[in-house]
């Protein structure tokens, strides 16, 4: 295989959003092309005019762009190639590889019913296969379809790059329609023509397309075209072992973005969902390109595991630049109904606190929620545990530590820590008896990064304001 010979494609149908299985298919095509120094193309299969819409096209392209899986060229829209699809259909007709069929819908329905009654698989019975019918043949005003001539005997074997040799008996195949009565090409036909015309060398797609491959092979062979290498990827199941459905809430890629997953993490997770290299779980983009090949794809279905995805996502959050994370957090805080005044000072607080925040977050949403206290203004909303902690004893401790902190001339983290530890020792208190009420008063929670770091970032004025507010409100019983 020469380095520049590989051409792959991802060909979504714009009848729905980009879902998790489609994203993995796109990723595998992208990685395989990059690994071999080839090209990765994107084709929008929009010949189904009734079900396709531009909103879904935009949604798919947006999702692919977010994942970094745009095609190497501008997307190809299948409907723009319809004249070429028709041309090939008539070429097959001319070469006696296809024929006109004038069966009415009622005749086809009766054909299926008879087959079921006789215990046969319902399929077209090739009524018009050997008739000399032309486009002008009269039959009650019925416009004909064009059907491909499938082989009548023997068997067809596809050497699948994942599954190995797969064979079907040709009697299981029927003379499928390639051109409808309104002269529009079918999906099966258009796909073959498009893949051939752009030189697709490897068709990497879900195993639910395996049956289609044998039907599409008929067109390749009838045209004398070389078949590409096929690789059918096992499906993705949910945690219960059921096939992931487009109707499920967390299937759409944009849902994962909204849930706070990073594209790098999702790509890493999807890469490992069906493909493996030893026991490595975290694989960088460049290393994945270096390692990826079809031989690493397993034959068994994969199960989607949110715990693993969160673990990988937390790794990438820790590796992400703090400025970038700060921008993500601010975007989420400003999008919520929080009435937060996200000033430059607030941005600086969150940025300075990011090292402490990001080690505790599994998603960007969780990171944003954890950072919210930096942007909040008193009175802070206390969670249940923080509210319970601030009893009269804790409030007396807070009053004492507030007085001590107010006397500090230097409000740096090390100085704050030394002062609080000394206060606890002098008052015969455990450090937690001071730190936890402080944490509750200034963050609204009992879980947060280092309290000394937080106080230094908030600054002396804001720290004392929050302590005073917490004391006054809780003393009043609010």
Automatic annotation (TrEMBL):
GO terms for biological process: glutamyl-tRNA aminoacylation. One of its GO terms (molecular function) is tRNA binding. Residues 346-470 form the Aminoacyl-tRNA synthetase class I anticodon-binding domain. Keywords: Aminoacyl-tRNA synthetase, ATP-binding, Cytoplasm, Ligase, Nucleotide-binding, Protein biosynthesis. Its main location: cytoplasm. Its EC number is 6.1.1.17. Catalyzes the attachment of glutamate to tRNA(Glu) in a two-step reaction: glutamate is first activated by ATP to form Glu-AMP and then transferred to the acceptor end of tRNA(Glu). Monomer. PANTHER family: GLUTAMATE--TRNA LIGASE (PTHR43311), GLUTAMATE--TRNA LIGASE, MITOCHONDRIAL-RELATED (PTHR43311:SF2). This is Glutamate--tRNA ligase.
């Amino acid at each position: 295989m020469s380095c520049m010979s590989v051409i792959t494609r991802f060909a979504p149908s714009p009848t729905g959003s980009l879902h998790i299985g489609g994203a993995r298919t796109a990723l595998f095509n992208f990685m395989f092309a990059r690994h071999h120094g080839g090209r990765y193309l994107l084709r929008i299969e929009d010949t189904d005019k009734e079900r396709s819409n531009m909103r879904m096209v935009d949604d798919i392209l947006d999702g692919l762009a977010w994942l970094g899986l745009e095609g190497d060229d501008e997307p190809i829209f299948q409907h723009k190639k319809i004249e070429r699809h028709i041309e090939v259909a008539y070429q097959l007709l001319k070469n006696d590889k296809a024929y006109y069929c004038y069966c009415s819908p009622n005749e086809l329905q009766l054909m299926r019913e008879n087959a079921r009654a006789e215990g046969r698989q319902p399929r077209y019975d090739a009524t018009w296969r050997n008739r000399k019918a032309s486009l002008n043949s009269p039959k009650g005003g019925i416009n004909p379809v064009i059907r491909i001539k499938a082989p009548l005997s023997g068997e067809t074997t596809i050497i699948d790059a994942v599954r190995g040799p797969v064979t079907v008996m040709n009697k299981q195949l029927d003379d499928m329609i390639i051109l409808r009565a309104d002269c529009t090409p079918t999906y099966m036909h258009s796909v073959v023509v498009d893949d051939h015309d752009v030189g697709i060398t490897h068709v990497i797609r879900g195993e639910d397309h395996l049956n289609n491959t044998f039907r599409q092979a008929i067109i390749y062979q009838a045209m004398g075209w070389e078949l590409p290498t096929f690789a059918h990827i096992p499906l993705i199941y949910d945690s219960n072992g059921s096939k992931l459905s487009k109707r499920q809430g967390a299937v759409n890629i944009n849902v994962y973005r909204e849930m706070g997953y990073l594209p790098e993490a999702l790509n890493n997770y999807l890469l490992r969902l069906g493909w493996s290299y030893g026991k490595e779980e975290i694989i960088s983009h460049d290393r994945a390109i270096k390692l990826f090949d079809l031989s690493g794809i397993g034959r068994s279905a994969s199960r989607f595991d949110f715990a693993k995805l969160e673990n990988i996502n937390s790794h990438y959050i820790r590796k992400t630049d703090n400025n970038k994370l700060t921008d993500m957090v601010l975007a989420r805080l400003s999008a919520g109904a929080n009435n937060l005044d996200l000033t430059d000072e607030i941005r600086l607080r969150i940025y300075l606190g990011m090292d402490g925040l990001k080690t505790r977050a599994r998603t960007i949403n969780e990171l944003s929620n954890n950072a919210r206290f930096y942007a909040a203004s008193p009175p802070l909303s206390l969670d249940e545990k923080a509210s319970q902690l601030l009893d009269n004893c804790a409030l007396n401790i807070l009053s004492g530590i507030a007085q001590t902190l107010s006397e500090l001339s230097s409000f740096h983290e090390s100085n704050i820590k030394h002062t609080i530890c000394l206060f606890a020792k002098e008052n015969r208190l455990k450090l937690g008896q001071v730190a936890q009420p402080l944490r509750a008063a200034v963050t609204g929670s009992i879980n947060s990064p280092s309290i000394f770091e937080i106080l230094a970032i908030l600054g002396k004025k804001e720290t004392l304001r929050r302590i005073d507010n917490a004391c006054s409100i809780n003393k009043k019983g609010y």
